[in-house]
Amino acid sequence: MRHVRYTNVRQDVPVGEEVDLEADVQQDTPTDIEAFDEEEKPPIRSWRRLVTRRCLSLSIVVGALFATVCFFVPFEFFPKPPEEVDTKFFDYAAHLLPGTAIPVLGDWGRKGIVGQQQVAAALATFCNTSLHNCPHIISVGDNFYDDGVSSVDDEQWRTSYEHVYSDPLLQGKWFVALGNHDHHKNNWPNEVQYANSSKKWILPRRYHAHEWLFGSMRVKLLILDTTPFVTGPLGFEEQLHWINQQMSLGSYTWKIAVGHHPIYSAGKHGDATELQTRLLPVLLRNGINLYLSGHDHNLQYLLSKESMPHQQPAVDFHQFISGSGAVSDPYHYEHPKAKWFNPELGFMTLKFTEQELICTFRNVSNAEIFSKTVPLQV
Fold it and tell me: Which residues neighbour 175 within 8 Å (Cβ) at sequence distance 6 or greater?
C-alpha cells in the first residue's frame, strides 16, 4: 500500500504568484509529493503505539491482581479506621480562654413564666460582667415541660427557648442533656433534630462528648442520657461501653459527667439507686469525680467518699445539682452527703484553672450564694 505526504512547497515560485496545482500533481513532481511505504512510517507514531499497548497490558495485569487479592484475602485483614474519627465518639472541640466561666442551668423550659424570665435575666447579667462573657452554656435537662417538643416547629422552641434567652450574650453554644420530661411521649428525637438547623443547640444524639481546651488544660465533658438508667425503655449498657471508649482516647486535666438525674440528692426525688449501681462505678473507674445534674428543683452540693474494690484510698466524688432554672422546690431532708442546699431560683457556673475548679451558685439577683473550690485530683 502506498501513502503520500506533502513535504515541501515550490521554491521556484515567487511570493504572490498564482500556481496551477492540478498540473503539478499530474506531473507528480517529486519535490512536491514524497512517496513512502507503510514499513517506512514516521518513528514517532510507532513509539506512541508501543507505549499505549504496554500501558494497557500493565493495567490489565494490575487489575486482575487486585481483584484476586480482594477475593481471597479476608476483609478483616485490611486495617480499620481509628474509632476516634467516628462522629459518635467525638462531637465538638473548642479552644477557650483561661478564666472563661461556663454557666450550668437545669429544668428551665416552662414557656417563659416569671421564674424562668428572672433566671434568664440574671444569667445575662452574669455573662455581661464575666471575663470573656459566656461562649458556652450547659443544660442539664428537662428543657421543655411537660412532654418535650412535638416537632422542630413546636411553639415551645420560641416560647420556652429562643424568646426567653434572646439576650445577645446568651447566644453561645448550649450543650444539652435530655431529661425525663424530654423523653415523654418519645419526643426526644425532635430535640436532636433541632440541632441540625441550630448553630447553638448542641445535641447531636442522646449522649455526646466534647473537649474544651483552656490554654494547656484539656477538659473532657461527657453529656449522658440518664433516663434509660432509671426508667428505660432504651438500654443503658451501650452508654457504659461508650464512656469507656471515650475516656480511652486521651489524658485530660478535668473529667466531667453531666446527666439529668442526680446520683445523690437531698431533694424530693432523693437518691437514684440505679445510677449508684450502674453508672457510678464506671465513672469512678475512668477517673471522673465530678457530676452535674438537675431534676430536683433547687440548688445543691453533695460530697461523698467513693472507692472501687481493691482501690485505695477512697476519692472525693463531687456532685452539683442546678435544677431551679424556672421553678423552685423547698422540700429537702437530712442527707449525710449533702453539704449545701438552697431552694432559690438560680444557676451555677464553672471556672477552670490549672489546679482547681471553682463552682459557684448564683440567684436571680446574680448574687453569689455559695462557692466550692474543687482541687485537681490526679
Answer: 92, 136, 137, 138, 139, 202, 210, 221, 223, 258
Rg of the chain on CA atoms, in Å: 36
Q: Is 18 in a helix, a strand, or coil?
A: coil
Rounded to whole angstroms, the Cα distance separating 138 from 132 reads 16
Give the contacts of 135 (CB within 8 A, at least 6 positions apart): 94, 96, 100, 172, 173
297: which residues sit within 8 A by CB, 6+ positions away? 107, 267, 323, 324, 327, 328, 329
The band of 60, judged by pLDDT with boundaries at 50, 70 and 90, is low
The string of pLDDT tens digits covering residues 168-216 is 999 999 999 999 999 999 999 999 999 999 999 999 999 999 999 988 8
Beta strands across the sheet bearing 254-258: 92-96, 208-214, 217-223, 254-258, 290-293, 315-322, 299-306, 338-342
* Amino acid at site 25: V
The Cβ of residue 15 has, within 10 Å, a number of other Cβ atoms equal to 4
Is 38 or 374 the better-scoring residue by pLDDT? 374
pTM: 0.76
CB burial of 353-366 (b: ≥16 within 10 Å; e: otherwise) equals eeeebebbbbbbeb
User: How many residues are there in the chain?
Assistant: 378
Please name every residue paired with 101 in a beta bridge, in sequence order, or none if there are none.
Answer: 351
How far is residue 170's CA from residue 324's CA, in Å, rounded to a whole number? 18
Provide the terminal-to-terminal Cα distance of the chain, rounded to the nearest Å: 91
CA dihedral 211, 212, 215, 216 (to 10 degrees): -30
Cα separations (Å) of 283 from 119, 231, 306, 315? 31, 20, 11, 12
Gap between the Cα atoms of 310 and 13, Å rounded: 110
Band (pLDDT 50/70/90 cuts) for residue 79 is very low
